[in-house]
Amino acid sequence: MIQKLLIANRGEISLRIQKTCKRLGIKTVAVYSDADKDSPFVKNADESFYLGGSEPSKSYLVIPNILKAVQATGADAVHPGYGFLSEKTEFAKALYQAKVSFLGPRPETVDLMGDKIRSRAAMEKAGVPVVPGYEGDSQEPSVLLKEAERIGFPVMIKASAGGGGKGMKRVFSKEEFLPSLESAQREAGNAFGDARVFLEKYIINPRHIEVQVFGDSSGNVIHLFERECSIQRRHQKVVEESPAPNLDPKIKQKICEVAVQAASSIGYLGAGTVEFILGEDGNFYFLEMNTRLQVEHPVTEAVTGFDLVEWQIRIAEGNTLASLLQGKEPGQTGHAIEVRLYAEDPENEFLPSIGRIELAKFPDQQNLRVDSGVVTGSEVSLYYDPMLAKIIGYGKTREEARKNLIAGLEHTVIFGPVTNVNYLRGILEHSEFVSGHTNTHFLEKHKIEWEEVGEEKEALAKTASFLVSRTVQSSSVWEAVGPKGLWGEIL
């Protein structure tokens, strides 16, 4: 049994994992950098350990420092969260060698699925459909161009070690190919230290459908249904939901079965996600497998009723899937939609917005879940991903979930950094989203519009009133605000 869990991550995912651990009576250890020393996830943990400087390369990505934290605190297991070291083979190997339980798959699995070329070949061998393409050894531009012509334009150039859209280019003609290849290889080399790429046929108007899978140490694998993640910006997911709307039941069943087939073929252990691309003709293809908990796991938790972090812990302890299910068959009840609230400016090319959060107020509302890592007074820095929270609406129907989520966004107030809260609401209110007609080009095709509503207007009015009343007697806004900040007065 795991007694003390070290969470090798930060922010909302650290708090999310701590929540389950507290319910299960497991002690938690937070690790932190200079920039995070006063963060909620550090204060909320049972123990904390300082890693180093604010840059991830000096703290959250330094494996020896994480191992020092494990040794110093006596933690007997590590949860990697997502991002940082969660899909680094070296990290999984180091923990296994140190005889510390890693809440993830075996190192060889992390290694295989982290290599897009090898994983694609493994899936093809297992009979899993893959997009027609080229994953040969040669990286010569002339060879790759010839292969692109064989596949037929448009094609996708993808980084072998890639993820998150880095090193990925869509090419529509022979003339565009070589400049795009050079750009993709340079981007992949900078991001992953591996400039290798492979080619895939570009699927027109695709949907991104992924399946949550779990495997245990006895070789059993099951799925916990699908998630629709088609609404993306620059290959980054913005809206996720489960079940996928307007998905033919026969295709849904087949995708889930193939996901289990894919995971079983590599002896998968723990939580994983098999991602597919679904064409307009109903054919679907393996995209990649993420060997960790996904950012969007709450929508699966909402419709299945399972705590996926608890499942990760129980499987790491050697429990079987059968013991977790206790004779019950997994099912989907209701509908859940998640959006990612970012400190970014939709009216300024989505540039990250940094600074002190003068006010963070999230609604306490039925059928609404908020996973956040920030509070009033938190600092949003350039060191880390600017996601402030995940907000998840649930309902008996998709429409009910959508309305609950919109209401939640209307009562979400962040002052300080600019956020995408209104942009998210605009997506949820778009007629094509309402009808469930989405694909990965949704945000390219449709203009997203919004208006300021609800508590935001009210708070803005309070802000203006407060500033006017104080600045008439002061030489500047900041003199008027004083050392407690703006919201110390208003609240």
UniProtKB/TrEMBL annotation:
Positions of the ATP-grasp domain: 120-317
Alphabetical UniProt keywords: ATP-binding, Biotin, Ligase, Nucleotide-binding
Superkingdom field: Bacteria
Any Pfam family the entry gives: Biotin_carb_N
Biotin carboxylation domain ranges (all copies): 1-448
Listed PROSITE patterns: ATP_GRASP, BC, CPSASE_1, CPSASE_2
GO molecular function, one term: ATP binding
Residue stretches in coiled coil: none
Name under which the protein is recorded: ATP-grasp domain-containing protein
Species per Swiss-Prot/TrEMBL record: Leptospira langatensis
